[in-house]
Amino acid sequence: MLGSGFIGRFYADSLQGYRSKDKIVSIYSRKQESAKKFADDYTVAFVTTDMEAAINRPEVEVVCISLPNNLHEEAVMLCCKHNKAVISTKPLGRNASEAKRMLEAVEKAGIFNGYLEDLVYTPKFIKAHESVKNGALGRILWAKSRETHPGPHSDWFWDIEQAGGGCILDLGCHCVEITRSYIGKDIKPIEVMCWADTQVKPIDAEDHAIGLIKYENGSIAQFEVSWTFRGGLDLRDEVMGTEGTIWVNSFLRTGFEMFTTGKSANYVAEKAESNTGWVFPVGDELNELGYNHMFMDMFNAMENGTQPKETFYDGYIVNAVLDAAYASAKSKQWEPVKLDVWRGKTGLSQDQHLTDYDADHYLVKEEMTHYGAKKLILKNKKTGKIFEKEIK
Amino acid sequence: MLGSGFIGRFYADSLQGYRSKDKIVSIYSRKQESAKKFADDYTVAFVTTDMEAAINRPEVEVVCISLPNNLHEEAVMLCCKHNKAVISTKPLGRNASEAKRMLEAVEKAGIFNGYLEDLVYTPKFIKAHESVKNGALGRILWAKSRETHPGPHSDWFWDIEQAGGGCILDLGCHCVEITRSYIGKDIKPIEVMCWADTQVKPIDAEDHAIGLIKYENGSIAQFEVSWTFRGGLDLRDEVMGTEGTIWVNSFLRTGFEMFTTGKSANYVAEKAESNTGWVFPVGDELNELGYNHMFMDMFNAMENGTQPKETFYDGYIVNAVLDAAYASAKSKQWEPVKLDVWRGKTGLSQDQHLTDYDADHYLVKEEMTHYGAKKLILKNKKTGKIFEKEIK
Amino acid sequence: MLGSGFIGRFYADSLQGYRSKDKIVSIYSRKQESAKKFADDYTVAFVTTDMEAAINRPEVEVVCISLPNNLHEEAVMLCCKHNKAVISTKPLGRNASEAKRMLEAVEKAGIFNGYLEDLVYTPKFIKAHESVKNGALGRILWAKSRETHPGPHSDWFWDIEQAGGGCILDLGCHCVEITRSYIGKDIKPIEVMCWADTQVKPIDAEDHAIGLIKYENGSIAQFEVSWTFRGGLDLRDEVMGTEGTIWVNSFLRTGFEMFTTGKSANYVAEKAESNTGWVFPVGDELNELGYNHMFMDMFNAMENGTQPKETFYDGYIVNAVLDAAYASAKSKQWEPVKLDVWRGKTGLSQDQHLTDYDADHYLVKEEMTHYGAKKLILKNKKTGKIFEKEIK
Amino acid sequence: MLGSGFIGRFYADSLQGYRSKDKIVSIYSRKQESAKKFADDYTVAFVTTDMEAAINRPEVEVVCISLPNNLHEEAVMLCCKHNKAVISTKPLGRNASEAKRMLEAVEKAGIFNGYLEDLVYTPKFIKAHESVKNGALGRILWAKSRETHPGPHSDWFWDIEQAGGGCILDLGCHCVEITRSYIGKDIKPIEVMCWADTQVKPIDAEDHAIGLIKYENGSIAQFEVSWTFRGGLDLRDEVMGTEGTIWVNSFLRTGFEMFTTGKSANYVAEKAESNTGWVFPVGDELNELGYNHMFMDMFNAMENGTQPKETFYDGYIVNAVLDAAYASAKSKQWEPVKLDVWRGKTGLSQDQHLTDYDADHYLVKEEMTHYGAKKLILKNKKTGKIFEKEIK
Questions:
Q1: Which tens digit of pLDDT belongs to each residue from B164-199?
Q2: Are C116 and C310 spatial neighbours (Cβ–Cβ below 8 Å)?
Q3: Mind telling me how many Å the CA of B365 is from chain D's nearest CA?
Q4: ipTM rounded to 2 decimals
Q5: C-alpha angle with apex C292: C286 to C298, nearest 5 degrees?
Q6: What pTM did the predictor assign?
Q7: Cross-strand bridge partners of residue C333
């Protein structure tokens, strides 16, 4: 385990949770004190502030990177050097160039690589995604993911040099991969339009952004990210298809509601903002946030010699999309997604899917009236005229 | 009453509902049959297919326009000619030019004019708006309004010539005025970015669109509109401020849930898509959709010689914003909102609002840790360095 | 209007709201100051502390009683004396004896009488009730109504002499009439089982109670009432039928959610307990709580010479059921509902409704398995043996 | 593993899920075919239709009973005979006599025993229970648990001889232990009042029941159970305390909502009733229903030589409470809970907790008025008089 901060501890709680056969055997942190505390809490045998020493140990089978963004590349290169399987927290790089170098390095070294995008491993996402794949929503038109909260816990996130960006990079990386998965990971993201601003915080990076991503088949993805939201951690996805809709609320409204006058002052949930009045805890954060299913997929894939659902390639695609978002926020126009590496479909055109009513007409809409009749709105194929027709 | 269609009937239900002193005395429709039926249902004395005849009657105190968009201007001009107070359904015009001509005409004629934007009169909006005005959310950063459903009921909506556009014009007009009201109606909308597409329907206009509107003070508005949504009428607003958040769901989740195996087949709600399984009716649609409070404001204003909350001026602003949205959807870049008439503030600059922690530091964030300590993230004003500090 | 307290003001807000033709012309209060303030706020011409004087005025067409429970009977008798239509707040009496005397008096005097049970006039109830009547839920098995909050606003409620009881009488009267309406107002309530206790408050009456009411057709009603609930006004109904379910949340979760850090301190909603953190206001309390539709029904009935939905007869039934509840709380067993006056059906027996599968078997259950087969659970009519059968 | 039916498969999915070190090594079923299929699906080495053979194998460390209720006692006795740790599904016995014999047997044999009451292991329950223990709700006044659905999957549940009862035994066992845990497992349940009926199904046992359980400290528990509910699996708990409220919805409303027109027909969730329209799947049923945390507690306790949270003793208490419920449903009065074995507190009296306002007055209620004043309702300690007082 590289990194003993907030996310490293979340990972460790998941990795050693339930009745797991997996163990953390080596911990690296930039600060000795923090590494030591982590080792005590999680019973880790080897403790070091030397990253290479943490990696290069015989008992280490896989290296888990939970470091600030600017240290990912260095860590990945060391894993390549020592031929260790590597899994990295999100985002993979601070930009697509870093991500591409990491991708090429692990593939050249031939080592197992996993991208720890936990939010495509949440139980709700997994089931929703299955439904989408099974066609329950028909053709996907739009997928939105929203992650907003009052700002990250550690100082380095707020420093644009270490983090590489603001909430677009920190939170948008989740949203991009979630929506891309709903639309289809083999569908090419073409261009991005993004608004970003620093509305509240005294920082150089953006603290609020909204973006649209256009895919080659005409589907549209949307992300809404912010470090200025008040009320907790807002984590919601929405998907619209020609035959259905999915709404997922992963955090603030999950069927657990508590009112308290506040004579107790205990920890409620990650990024909750108050512990009196109505609060909305999550039962099992590790599971709801996808950590358990993510590590299960990673380690099972390693053991089976297969690829996990998320690899460095996916991390690279995400970085490329986010680069286009940053470019668009500056240029104020749609910007192309630059993909030197692309392994999905190409040359798709936008679907049309006109619905015939009969030989001469398209069906525009069909509905039931108040009084029980069937009302059709039809379009004449030749004249283009649109008219109503009622069938009793 | 001009127009006897879906919206005209909704208006009539509201106007003559409760213990009202107001009455419909004259009905015009393009079709005699429809006018006759309306007159029977609502006990209206005078029935005609001649628009001018409907208006020019001594007992008519105010004319209510519920006609297709392309007939608004003609009707307004007739009201001016006969010096009748006029209230018009939304959108005011098919574009800002039409709207501006109507605005100028009613003001020149000196007649009372009201813009029937019902969704800023819903009980939830009214209460939410009060909270915003009272500062419960602090400075407003972002306001979103979403209206999507499976498409309008009448044929003319689907015809771009009569309607003037697709779902942007039909639904976006609501969203623009809702979000503008949250941000402040005296704050100038500056520019718009919009994506629009015809993803499903065999029509010339757009059936799905998403747009962003930037205001002079840096606030951002967002609209999401579609005629391709499956699941009913999705009518939700969200507002983010520096001190709070508002979420309003006006239709599909209002505290009324019903499961039925379907041995009954009755009307559930406007634009509901099914009447078996779990359905989500609204108790009192007229009230929840704002019709009652809207007409109350209109008629009280008329009687008191004051202005209603929404006038043709507001309708014109909305049309101007939507024109910019259409321009942006074509040009693929942010487009300016062209406002020949503007009666609000000008020259605002974006707020900064840095929060001092002490003489040397800005406060980036303050939070409680799991273990009950207070954790600060601070920024040195001189060096710009960001660091954590814990207070126990 | 008799009474100028909390409920009197709610009534007045409703009566004179929207574009109403109805006016309050005379106000009585026990305290001059309170009567005067009411008259000022609602522009009432005649102000008095003499109840009879308030009633016996030529311009008074109907008397609205919003007095403490112990004064209802006196007020009703004065209305009888002066031959004035009367509508009374809930509960009608402090017990069935009082209620019966009032019922007999108004019927003998031949005056219009209405029972102001607002919660069977809420828009949600009205629509839900229609669905039930239309058979959407099949045969009704169970109806529950819950009303709990942190306690009433005025001192007299807490005094068992004036109020006649505690939360059973104050809140249970609503629940009894709501559930009775779902089950059918012509179905006879037979017996009641009730638990009641004074768990928290320093009072003689109960502050928490739960009761079950058995109807002649085997349907069961349930009430849950308390003055010790924390978190606001919890107002929920649930109905189970053989073909469906209804869940109504009338107050705390109606599609309006607000988070605020609390720099504002304004009134949120009746019986809300906090104004910071997540709060859940109701858009239009008067409408959501049924006042508007209630007065509309009352006055329309008066004008049409018909009966309103709720009369003193209904108030009497409710009191009789509550009397049985108090008896059961003491005796710790089911107690019969004593109804000297009953105008509904009698002699019903409990429904059986066995579902035949074929000549030899009853259908116990039918379901779809994971793997798409249809699974039946059947009962042999002769042997009584229950077994599974799968159909692919 | 004894039993290869619905619940056995759920257990197996959980036991061998995630990255578990635990394995099923032996499977017994009454039917060879079913045992064989189970063994294939879960890679179980030893398959038998001889219960004793399944138990008496050296590699078996713990026996998991997932058999019909009437076979629990036999299975437990065999575990005692062969000195195997045993964990049993719920309810422990068909009645308290059976449960008591099992309890005494395992304790005499000195073997590890666990009671598989999964619903006190759900992540939501665990967190809610922590909050209650930490005092977030103050003194607990009432705890309700509701489990209703359209009926169980297997035939034996519907047969009163095998099952021992109807929905009270099947579902009430969950509700009793959930509510007992909120109130405090060391607080003695004293008496029970229960209504039960067979309203719909052609069976001898009850298909709908509601019960109240009084505890020695005056707290009240409530269960609502039914096999006639339409709409899916309704699994909700509510807790009221002097300082707060908890609402948990474990199944039908967990933040996952899907609308589909139904071109897909896949499995949605345990006991869902439809797969078109609006459906409400649960992300990870095994985790949400508590299986994972339950087995973790059981096996960790075994390895550590400690007791799990739920033992046969708890199963016995639950059976004793349910026996009283059945007795009450017959006698129509409150029935005492007969506990030959009780290891908690005794002799508690009901709490009073009067709140002093000052030397002469109790505080009845304190609230904020619309207009910002503080309103107190006080009771004179000597005279008992209750009055209002306003503080500005």
A1: 999 999 999 999 999 999 999 999 999 999 999 999
A2: yes
A3: 27
A4: 0.94
A5: 145
A6: 0.95
A7: D333
